[in-house]
Amino acid sequence: MNVHDSEKVQGVLLARGMTPVEDLAQADLVLYNTCSIREKAAQKVYSRLGTFRKGRSGAAKAIGVLGCVAQQEGERFFERAPQVSLVCGSASYSILPQLLDQLEAGKSRVTGLALDTEECFETEMTRRDNPFRAYLTIIEGCDQRCSFCVVPMTRGPQRSRASDKILSEALGLVDQGYTEIQLLGQIVNAWHDPSPARLSFAELLSRVAEIPGVRRLRFTTSHPKYFTSDIVRAVDAHPTLCNQVHLPLQSGSSAVLARMLRGYTREEYLEKIHCIRKARRAISLSTDIIVGFCGETLEDFEQTLSLIKEVEYDQVFSFKYSPRPNTPAEGSGDAIAEEEKGRRLAQLQEVQRQIQVRRNQALLGESFEVLVEGYQARLGQAVGRSTTNRVINFPGSPEDIGRYLTVKVTSAGPNSLVGVRAENEA
Ligand code: 5AD
Question: Prior bond to 220 cis, omega within 30?
Answer without folding.
Answer: no
